[in-house]
Design brief:
With about 160 residues, this protein is of the alpha+beta class. The protein contains 6 helices and 7 strands, in the order αβββαβαβααββα. The protein is about 30% helix and about 40% strand. Strands 1-2-3-6-5-4 form a 6-stranded antiparallel barrel. The longest helix is centred in the first third of the chain and has 14 residues.
Length: about 160
Amino acid sequence: MDSLAMIDRLRKLFETQKLGVLATSSPGGPYCSLVGFSASEDLAYIVFATTRATRKYDNLLNDPRATILIDSRSNQEEDFHRAIAVTATGRARELSDPEKQIDLAKHLARHPHLEEFLRSPTTGLFRLDVTMYYLVERFQNVTEIRPETARAGRKEP
């Protein structure tokens, strides 16, 4: 499969899934959490939010390296052959205005049910600047995709 087809698979997965598993590092080891996410159109970054009084927030302040796993599993046996999973790796940073307002509007459009949470002064909005996507299909086929490839293959309106 060519790189443009892989990018289309990523975009489709990101459109159909709303939750991902965020992995952060702590002194005690890795820590995972479910987060609502939204991806930028060019796939350069992924946005998510967390309350500032959480372990994942502290972990990100102490070590911004993070990953988000997004997958299509349905907990059925056929997932071993049909499900796909993408791990996005990069560095996360809390957003501030005006960047925050732009990404907040896009994130709210995708997750309108989270408006109260997202607008709370105790919530931090983060951007994971993606350095690499790892796409896994058929349980063992792994393809590396750089965000630059997605930007180069983006169709202009």
